[in-house]
Amino acid sequence: MTDETREPVPGEPSTGVDETEPAAVELDDTTAEASPPAAATSTRGTARPGGLRGILIPAVLAVLLLASAAFAAWVYVEQYRPDDQTSSTVAASAMDAASEGTVALLSYSPESLDQDFATAKTHLTGEFLTYYTQFTTDIVTPAAKQKDVKTSADVVRSAVAEIQPDSAVVLVFINQTTTSKENPAGSFTASSVKVGMTKVDGKWLINAFDPV
């Protein structure tokens, strides 16, 4: 049996449906493809740049600060060591150098002037060395040779008045005996001297010599 197309009857109201078109076919549920779910974006296991910097930078800074502090401590202990460099041992070393230098400065004989003055100069430094060289050359040497002056000094006592890692002031008490043509029996003098010391290449040298 064939379907016949029904002709519209004049005057009959139209139903608005085109009977020539087949009815809409509903899709079976099995024919509809489920759209794949949106891929879930996971941040698990993914390092965030900001978070990594936040961890590493403070750690690096902490290491650098510790290293800097350790280096500063080493410099302080090894290079400066104010307690060690002004200890009783250092003070005794400066005091011994001042006493030995004082004896060399104030002891000489006409027979050995050049050697005596040369020995004394090994204990001196700076402007005082220059002054001593000129003084012994211009004044002491002519007088000692002309009047046959001989003098010797002994340190009775010494004490450190000031001490720094590279400088010191030592108070030296001395007894000095002097003989000459005019006074062969000799004269005795007790005096005290403030001796300024400075360390040059690890050795204490006299840079000032002032009677007190």
TrEMBL record:
Keywords: Membrane, Transmembrane, Transmembrane helix. Residues 18-31 have a biased composition (Acidic residues). One of its GO terms (cellular component) is membrane. Residues 32-47 have a biased composition (Low complexity). Residues 1-47 are annotated as: Disordered. The keyword Transmembrane applies. Its main location: membrane. It comes from the Bacteria. The chain crosses the membrane at residues 55-77. It is found in: Membrane. The keyword RNA-binding does not apply. PANTHER family: OUTER MEMBRANE PROTEIN RV1973. This is Twin-arginine translocation pathway signal. It comes from Mycolicibacterium arabiense. The lineage of its organism: Bacteria, Bacillati, Actinomycetota, Actinomycetes, Mycobacteriales.
